[in-house]
Amino acid sequence: MTAGGMPMAPGDGDGDGREDRGGLRAALAGLTTRGRSFLAAGVAAAVCSYVLGQADLLRVGLLLAVLPLVCVAVVHRTRYRVAGSRRLSPARVPAGSEARVHLRIDNVSRLPTGLLMLQDRVPYVLGPRPRFVLDRVEPGGRREVSYRVRSDLRGRYPLGPLQLRLNDPFGMCELTRSFSAYDTLTVVPRVEPLPLVRFAGEAMGYGDGRHRSLALAGEDDVIPRGYRHGDDLRRVHWRSTARYGELMVRREEQPQRASCTVLLDTRRVAHQGSGPDSAFEWAVSGAASAAVHLLERGYGVRLLTDTGSSVPGPDSGGGFTGSGHDSADTAGLMLDTLAVVDHSEEAGLSRAYEALRGGNEGLLVAFLGDLDEEQATMVGRMRHRTGTAVAFVLDGGAWSRGAWAPDPRGLEERLRMLRESGWTALPVTPGTTVAQLWQQADAQGGIQADAGRPLAGGGMTGGWA
Questions:
Q1: C-alpha 342 chain-centroid distance
Q2: 382-409 in b/e burial notation, b at 16+ Cβ within 10 A?
Q3: Over the stretch 113-145, which tens digit does the pLDDT of each residue have?
Q4: Can you give the residue ranges of the DUF58 domain (predicted)?
């Protein structure tokens, strides 16, 4: 929740509604058409009284001129004695869902306010700008109002600053003042629930997709290793030390979560069209669904794009973050990243391939756009850097609805190339859900055939079975 924690300081409003110095000048600039008319009539009457020598006309002119000036003074003195706050519920919503914004105005002065018009600045994609008319607010009182926002387009949208329009009872002066605080509404991709499938770790009888890997503490391995700088001397294996003639320490291991990489192809040349129903938005939503589902299944998940950037990225030990209690934070970080991901200008997937060269990736789930022969060959080589690999390849011709329709035989050829490289490759057409393709991938024998295959780094894959 953000708030103008104190009453608004005296200031002037510029063209953006921001405050600066010179409040009286801004108050005079806030005269309405009625106020300016009264002031002009009063000045004209005063001039005419001087020319014509009519004292009564001078009194009328003074009355007409003083009334709007008094209203300006009243509004100028009372416009700073309110404080406002805003609260989002929730602050992160899926595309197409609604969020509610709660506004609260507190009168912190000893005098009641006049008529107030409250409005909040909202991007046009979230809906019309909300406006509320607040009647008299008693001293120390508060008023609470709320409105709903909704967007079919993911992104980060600023809300605010909150603005108050102050009026005098005669409608002579109208001033707009803004609080400095604002909030950000994050619209994340739609996350589709995916069906549960059986993972390789479960088939091996070692829990929920977990495998064993070398670590610093845990059960002792029967095979010692040479002493390294920084090793605890309490781990020295004296029998092996006497046998080999050098310090040997016990090598230890502990359970570790299976790892997974979700690869998202964001190349502009690979996706045609735009908007909430485009192929690119389907790929982003699919990547979000897969990442969240695998995190819930106990996987350490990394989100990788064709630019080579990863979220949250490998840790210093080469593993994947998002384990244990922080999986919810990792999911939130990935969704926030996918909320603002956009097309890249990359021509190929070489950077993603370089990011996968370290091996030990476990399960690889890729959401790919249109592939030419060169890129399909490179994606095929990615398979050798991972354990189990599943690719969802979008059919550009079907998504473009005839505006751009490549040879359908080209897609079949690319899928064949990926399958020959060991991928489980499925085409994606409009109307197909991620859950349907997830089940199809589980039903294909290519996944089960490679489940539990040892990796070059000595671990076991975290694929499906």
A1: 12
A2: bbebbbbbbbbbbbbbbbbeeeeeeeee
A3: 777 889 999 999 998 999 999 888 898 999 999
A4: 225-308
